[in-house]
Amino acid sequence: MKYSWNVAREVMRLVPPSGGTFREAIVDFNYKGFSVPKGWKMHWSPNSTLKNAEYFSEPEKFDPTRFEGKGPAPYTFVPFGGGQHLCPGRDLVKLQILVFMYHAVRKYKWETVLPDEEVDFILFPKPVDGLPILLQPHIV
Length: 140
Known about the structure:
The protein has 140 residues and is of the alpha+beta class. The protein has helices spanning 2-14, 47-50, 90-107; strands at 21-24, 29-31, 34-36, 41-44, 108-112, 119-122, 124-127, 133-137. The chain starts with a helix and ends with a strand. 6% of the residues are buried.
């Protein structure tokens, strides 16, 4: 199950389940030449971290082995948030993902109907044509 969870984590790194979050500046600060006054609302996108080559080598490459050993540095893999904003349901979600993967892979052969389908990223990833798939039961 360890490798299966690494596969799920890599999928969540490449296509985060959340489009981001909003935070309020608690002090005035400058960032890359921009002044941000205290009280302004800011949007943080997980892609700014999850696809950053500083934290993940070859960030566009699908590589579940990047989660082996020590894995990513703290607060760089954040599909469930972090710190005081860590999702309280993350362990339940992990269990649900692993159970789904087990049954989906063991019982069915999957084939995408539109292998080059585009994905819109407006808050959440959404396949343009709905991601039609062809499922065929494995015959044991």
